[in-house]
Prior knowledge:
By secondary structure, this protein is α/β, with parallel strands linked by helices. It has helices spanning 19-33, 47-51, 64-71, 85-88, 93-96, 99-114, 123-136, 141-146, 186-196, 219-230, 247-251, 265-269, 273-280, 291-300, 311-323, 325-338, 341-344, 346-353, 377-385, and strands at residues 3-7, 37-41, 57-60, 77-80, 117-120, 154-156, 174-179, 204-209, 236-240, 256-259, 285-288, 303-306.
Amino acid sequence: MSRVLLVCPEPLGHGHPAGIGIRFLEIEKVLKEDGHTVTLRSPPVAPEDFARAEADVAVVQGHIANDFFAHAPAMPVVVDLYDPFIIENLHYHESRGAEVFTHDHATLVQSLLRGDFFLCASDTQRMFWLGMMLAVGRLNPIAFESDPALQSLIAIAPFGVPPARERGIASEPRVLFGGIYDWYDPILAIDAIAIARQSLPQISITFTKHPNPDLTPQGKLAAAMQYAKKSKAEFVRFEPWFEYERRGEFFDRFALALLTFRQSLETDLSMRTRVYDYLWGGLPIVTSSAPGTNEILGRYRCGIVVQDESPRAIATALLRAFAEQNALRNGARDFVRDHQWPAALEPLRDFCRKPLIDANKDAFAVRMQLPEKPPSILERLKRRIGGAS
C-alpha cells in the first residue's frame, strides 16, 4: 500500500468544511479503508512541511498546489480538477480585478503541466479539460498512442455520498438553499418563496453563511440579506454553516432544497456538491436547469428542474414538490445507493495502488515563465480577496 499525501486548498481546522473540504475528508476515509497511510494537509501549510513530505503519491487541488510544486520532493501527483475554479472566479472580475484570473490561469496551467494523473467530475468536464491539456501539450501523440481513450491521463471521479441514513420528517414546510456563492441567484429564490406563500403561508427559506468568508467573496450573500431586510421578508433566515458530522440533523429540519442560478458556462461545467449532499440527507431538490443536475434528478426522479427562470415558475415547482415529496424521497434513496464514495473514487483508488510519474509529460509541454519564488499562501489570499499586500 502507498503513503498518500492529500493537499486540500480549503482550511479544515474549523470543522465546517464546504464542498472541496468535504471531498478531501471523504477521500481520506476511502483511502484509509483501502489500507493506505494517509496524511491530510490544509491551510495554513508551511513550505518546510511540503519539503519534508514523505509520500509515494500526492493529491492536490487549486491554488495550494503552487506551494506544493515549489517545495515538495518529486513524487507522482494526482491533480483533482473536480472544481473548475477558474470558471467560477470569472464572476469576480468586476469586484476583484484582473489579477484573480491571471493568478488562476497560471495556477491551472502549472497544475496541468506538473500533474501525472487527473480527476474530473463529469463527461462534460472531461472534454473541457482535455481541450486545456491539448493546449498545454499534455494531450499529445505519445499519450494518444499509448492510450487512445486517454483514461490513464484523466478519469471521471465525481462527488459521492456516505451510506444511507434514516431521516426525520420536517414538521414545517422549510426550504433549504444553503451557502450563497456569487454565481447563485438568491433574490430569485426569495421572490419564489414569497409567491409560494400565497398558497402555503408557512413556507420559509434558509441560507447559510460560508465558513470561509475571507477566502470566498460574499457579494450575493450581502445583497440577499439587504433585499430580505428591505422587503421585510420574515420568512427568510440566514444561519451559520453547519458542522459536517452533524449535517444530517440539520437537514432533518427541512422538507425540500432549492437552488436558483442564471445560465452560464459555470452552470454547464459545475457538478453541484450540495446536490449530492442534500439527496443523501433525504431532501428532494427544486433547481434551475444545469446539465449534470438535470441528469441526476431526471434519472432518479428525486427533484424537479425548472426551465423557466421566473419566480412564479419556481414557486409552482416548489408547491408540486411538496405534494410529491414522499415519491421524491424514494428517488433520493435510490440515488444514495448508487453513488457511494468508494465507487465514485475508483480511478483514484486504482492510481494510489500503483502510483507512477508520467515519464512523457514534458515531451510536448509548453514552457511557462513562472516566478522564481512563488508568493506565499497569505499573499495569494490577500490578492484574491482584494486586501493590501
